[in-house]
Design brief:
globular, alpha/beta, 7 helices
Length: 196
């Protein structure tokens, strides 16, 4: 857990990645928020190395680290076909999920992680179209239980979008908790559709 290491530099992350043995048994990786460790190529490469060496990762917390869509794509490629991931927190990483590249990378992570139970995607630029893509990649027996999503300024203002969101959530039958905290603009009719 490197969360409290606000002074961690990209070079420090590289050294950590280099020092890990092959097939290291690491279950949880938490990077410090606001450090922007993953905003540059060196940070991305170090994280990919950690993913490749730590095939037993279950909990990955990368909120507000500067992770880009390209970086997410590289992480998805580094995961084994049957990843052990249970928790992926990506909140507050700019527009990482606004475009197809980031959405496809996250869909790949979902596909490779049948045990995934929790995903935090707030403030990532995720759209209803992106959510539909993610929902369609989940297997019917998906383990996803908790989903925190969407930006307060981005989507679901129009009724058609609210209907699409409701349909997506309905398709993820394993969900037990949906955090809509950032959806200040959700209408009463939209809430009714979600309830249906």
């Amino acid at each position: 857990n490197l969360q409290s290491m606000y002074w961690l530099t990209t070079r420090g992350l590289e050294r950590l990645a280099e020092s890990l043995p092959e097939q290291a048994v690491v279950r949880k990786l938490v990077l410090p928020a606001e450090a922007d460790l993953l905003a540059e190529e060196q940070g991305e490469a170090a994280l990919v190395t950690i993913f490749q060496k730590c095939q037993t990762l279950e909990d990955v917390e990368l909120q507000q680290t500067g992770l880009t869509a390209r970086g997410l794509e590289r992480l998805a490629a580094a995961l084994p076909a049957q990843s052990t991931l249970r928790k992926v927190l990506l909140s507050s990483n700019g527009e990482i999920l606004a475009e197809e590249q980031g959405q496809a990378a996250l869909a790949s992570i979902f596909e490779k992680s049948p045990a995934l139970e929790e995903a935090a995607l707030q403030h990532t630029g995720l759209t209803v179209l992106g959510l539909e893509r993610l929902a369609s990649t989940l297997p019917e027996d998906a383990a996803l239980r908790t989903l925190s999503l969407l930006d307060k300024n981005k989507i679901i203002v129009e009724e058609k979008d609210q209907a699409a969101l409701a349909k997506c959530l309905q398709n993820i039958s394993s969900l037990k908790e949906v955090n809509l905290q950032s959806m200040y603009w959700l209408t009463t009719r939209g809430l009714e559709r979600l309830a249906e």
